[in-house]
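Deliverable D5.2: sample structural annotation.
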Amino acid sequence: MIAEQLIGPDIAFDEPWQAEAFATAVQLSRSGVFTWSEWVAQFSTTIAREPQRDGESIGDAYYRQWMTALEALLATSLCLSGQTVTARQAAWHAAYLSTPHGQPVALSNAVQTDDDHEHDGHHHHAHHHHHSHDGATMRPVPRPVAVVPARR
């Protein structure tokens, strides 16, 4: 299999996310979401349609094209709408921002329930109770401010 030939000790990635993107495509192909031939066709089409941009490194262009191809193939293979993908990306981004440093990112961190709330004027104190929450009582987790040193 071609995918097997691409995996080896000589592969180098500039960033960890590039390795994850690569491994994701290989694993999705192995698990039958799409064939490697379908992947190659989609990736080739994407490269032709979206060539390297001015000032963009070859590596950056390659993985931009890789991600674009992967998103397109998943949309086709899994019948995902752009709106669904955008909503899920936003949820994962919120989960990432809300996860304490050093902890695994979990999608459940994207939203939290407001269990300490009032009900239409009664009980003016916080209390914990259990009942269903709809979209009106769910609120996004506040986004922390992150300071990252400049990259060179």
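Annotation notes: The radius of gyration is 21 Å. The CA atoms of residues 75 and 81 lie 6 Å apart.
The annotation will be released with the project's public dataset once the embargo ends.
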